[in-house]
From TrEMBL, chains A, B, C, D, E, F:
The keyword Transferase does not apply. One of its GO terms (biological process) is molybdate ion transport. InterPro entries: Mo/tungstate-bd_C_term_dom, Mop_domain, Transp-assoc_OB_typ1. PROSITE patterns: MOP (PS51866). Residues 2-68 form the Mop domain. The lineage of its organism: Bacteria, Bacillati, Cyanobacteriota, Cyanophyceae, Pleurocapsales. SUPFAM superfamilies: MOP-like. This is TOBE domain-containing protein. Keywords: Molybdenum. It comes from the Bacteria.
Amino acid sequence: MKLSTRNTFKGTVKKIELGAVNAEITLEIAPGVEVVSIITKSSAERLSLAEGKEVYALVKATDVAIAVD
Amino acid sequence: MKLSTRNTFKGTVKKIELGAVNAEITLEIAPGVEVVSIITKSSAERLSLAEGKEVYALVKATDVAIAVD
Amino acid sequence: MKLSTRNTFKGTVKKIELGAVNAEITLEIAPGVEVVSIITKSSAERLSLAEGKEVYALVKATDVAIAVD
Amino acid sequence: MKLSTRNTFKGTVKKIELGAVNAEITLEIAPGVEVVSIITKSSAERLSLAEGKEVYALVKATDVAIAVD
Amino acid sequence: MKLSTRNTFKGTVKKIELGAVNAEITLEIAPGVEVVSIITKSSAERLSLAEGKEVYALVKATDVAIAVD
Amino acid sequence: MKLSTRNTFKGTVKKIELGAVNAEITLEIAPGVEVVSIITKSSAERLSLAEGKEVYALVKATDVAIAVD
């Protein structure tokens, strides 16, 4: 499957925190570089997410803001 | 300034493409790891973005989807 | 590949309009039901989108608002 | 009221799950076609959402990604 | 029509800039307070947007980030 | 720090509601004008948000929809 989503980061699940509706997933996509994702708890279960699992983080280009010092 | 935005990636501008309203900015945030951002052309000008400039890419956690093979 | 994205609609490309940076893609996901997507022009080219092609529209649950009359 | 939002789907509420801050709403917009929405719990209450209620799902075109097999 | 969208700002169109696919709309929602919106050009036409017109700006709560000095 | 984000509203925190994963923050950005934001609970803690604190609400232009009566 190919996606229009411009940004795809391969990573490993480091931490999962479950709420009532949502789940917060922390991935490591490079040594010392982490990405945090909020998805629904049912999606986390459907994807069988667990610490150590290899996953991809997907981000649309329009959802990336830029800052300068 | 501190941001609620969970994901902040320090990087360098590699490429800028300008449209009539939007601009597509490509950053390198680690060797071989690129992030593409679409912002308005007027923002790109206001931030004086240019190839080689050091910037930050900002992504809200709710804008990060996850995929598994 | 399985996605955390909750909403996946199978459809057919009906129309493609290209801008300088973005492309507007119209899909039909059911008889008389259309979905409009804005992606980058380079994504439209990378996916080889063309009228009549079978594709999927993906929407995160947090991006769906609800209205009542 | 007319909206800039390009995608409007008329549907019926099938299921509501409440969290502490958010609510997950499942709509049926065509036979066998469901849309899942996450809104705040206070919005779900303000709109008096309930199973069987007729509602609209609204999605901005920039929030629709596209995938191909 | 009532919306789940938590943030609704009444305002007046101050400026419209048209691109090939998108349009950038600037509203004034209070004396000296402006909101900029990017919508598709076809939406701007469908809503008959013009300088001086009274409109509403709608923003989902999950799309509002927070910063502190 | 300068941001590509087009919309920045200075305001004061009026109310904070905490869920398991998310927090709902209500700001007043002008007399009688409120903005509601959903951020992660850990971001609310990291920014030391509290009632009365001065903060900024940030919204990308592509996340602003427009409605007309």
